[in-house]
Amino acid sequence: IPPALRDRMEVIDFPGYTEEEKMSIAKDHLLPKSLKNNGLTQEQCALADDAIRRIIRAYTREAGVRNLEREISSVYRKCARRVAEGDKEPKKVNAAVLPDYLGPEKFSEQETEKEDRLGVVNGLAWTEAGGDILQVEATKMAGRGTLILTGHLGQVMQESAQAAYSYARSVATSFGVKDEFYRKSDIHVHAPAGAIPKDGPSAGVAMAIAIVSILTGRPVRPDVAVTGEITLRGRVLEIGGVKEKTLAAHRAGLSTVIMPNSNEKDLVDVPESVRKQLKFVFVDDVREALATALRPASGKTKPAAPAKRHAAHRPKKK
Question: Helix H segments across the chain?
């Protein structure tokens, strides 16, 4: 659309459905429709809630519900065939028996660390199919001060990694790291799932935390998720996709989300039930994020220093 014409229009964005929205659509619309199309009744074949959720997570990855409808119809078709063959026993399809109907799972969920790890940070990513966990790994080895980046990173994400590395070098001495480390060591930053392209600036803070962790020997808390763009001065800038990223952290079982202070207003879009189960730390500076995300070097689990805003947040409705 020509810019002059688009400027005279109102643009309405349609974000992808969340997991809970897909659950509601499936139970209220897709299940009754598929039952009718396959000549079945609820008594002949019932799809349990855990099976629907498993289909959403492990058999589809989409913004809408078209593939979800196809997979549900596939389950009911197999039930209908068994009924046609004379099997009159009611079928209760739950998550445990779902592979018998749909085969092996097509997508695996991103597993987070269960224990403190050096240089491993749970970043948050936005995709067309919703939010996802993007783990960022960093390691140090003998070298000549080279920054190595892998994981199919786009140009913007590579520049964010460079900014995170430069920031870490500028503050290294304040964390007790010898100034000449960059002359004798290489830093390798990697984003797993290398076949999947990744881009955007919102992993900058996560990369900075991973690099500082590996330099200082302070492990990263495994229950923390991080998102935010970083500047060379260590400022944390606003990012997008807050709703999707927050739901991804909740789905992964994480307890704390670190995000830019300027994104506090966006939590109004996150379901209240999710907000109550997460603790949000809003930061303006990377040091505040480091205080929350990193354990002491001794490994003792002392409480993190308070950031600018801490604890569960319930934003007022607009």
Answer: 3-6, 19-25, 31-37, 49-54, 66-84, 98-102, 155-171, 181-184, 204-216, 242-251, 272-275, 286-293
d(CA 296, CA 280): 21
Q: Which amino acids are annotated catalytic?
A: 202, 245
- Six-digit token pair at 229? 């763009």
Distance CA 273, CA 270 (A): 9
Q: How far is CA 28 from CA 13, 16, 19, 31, 230, in A?
A: 24, 18, 14, 7, 43
Identity of the amino acid at 76: Y
CA neighbor of 191 nearest in space, from 119, 240, 274: 119
- Give the other-Cβ count within 10 Å of 317's Cβ: 6
Task: Please state the separation of Cα 93 from the chain's center in Å.
Answer: 29
Please give the chain's pLDDT, 318 residues, in tens: 899 999 999 988 777 787 888 999 999 999 999 999 999 988 899 999 999 999 998 899 887 899 999 999 999 999 999 989 988 888 899 999 999 999 999 877 666 777 888 999 999 988 766 778 889 999 999 988 899 999 989 999 999 999 999 999 898 888 888 767 778 889 999 998 877 788 889 999 999 999 999 999 999 999 999 999 999 999 999 998 898 899 889 888 899 999 999 999 999 988 888 889 999 999 999 999 999 999 987 544 443 344 444 444 444 444
Amino acid residing at 259: M
